[in-house]
Amino acid sequence: MDVNLDFGVDDTRLTAAWMLGSFLVVFLVTRVITRLIRAGHGPFRDTKVGGVHVHHLVHGIVLMLLAGFGEFLYRPEGVWQVVLAVGFGAGAALTLDEFALWLRLEDVYWTEKGRASVDVVLVVAAVGGLLVLGLNPFGAAGEDDAPTVLGLAAVTVAFAVVAAIKGKPILAVLGLVVLPCAVVGAIRLARPGSPWANRRYREGSSKDVRARARFPEGRRTRWDALVDAVGGVPRGASGS
Known about the structure:
By secondary structure, this protein is an all-alpha fold. The chain is built from eleven helices and two strands; from the N terminus they run αββαααααααααα. A hairpin with a 2-residue loop joins β1 and β2 (52-53). It is globular and about 55 Å long.
């Protein structure tokens, strides 16, 4: 697998930089606002329409749809391309900040399950950073080798996705660049509480017991500390 790093600035990477910048700024601002609402400080309150709590992922979906329509229908260049990139990045941030909600179809924003949203956002931000740097893990593809490159990309992404839903976001991100990392994350036991473990490890089964022994309750990692710092301590956890 070839890994190409091109530090020259081109329009594609510049657009990616605007999109990533918008994504990070909107996510951080959103987390600040939601933490203020949680603490009962400041002028911010939950948005309600007719007694229904309108989650901010709704605004994110609308922004992404508008940006997508604008890009596909008009193919703008210059400043309008930047505007669409910023809009899409902002929409993605608002939507992925509530990833756990649309994954589980329940409001788990401030619970342990809600940490999945921050995991996903950090993973997407890391991948976006690699794209801004010009990293292409699959090398340059011509017409002749395009099927091979697309096949390799599909396999890599598949392993990375499995690693992510097994509760191993770091290996998932690294695996997008170094395939063996994603393979290791995908084939080893899932972390308890991850989407994979919740769906496939029956409570009390041998895999469930082994997973809990490998990842004991209360075990803290640097990744956990980073997620807490960015997203806040889950409700019911120590320090909440």
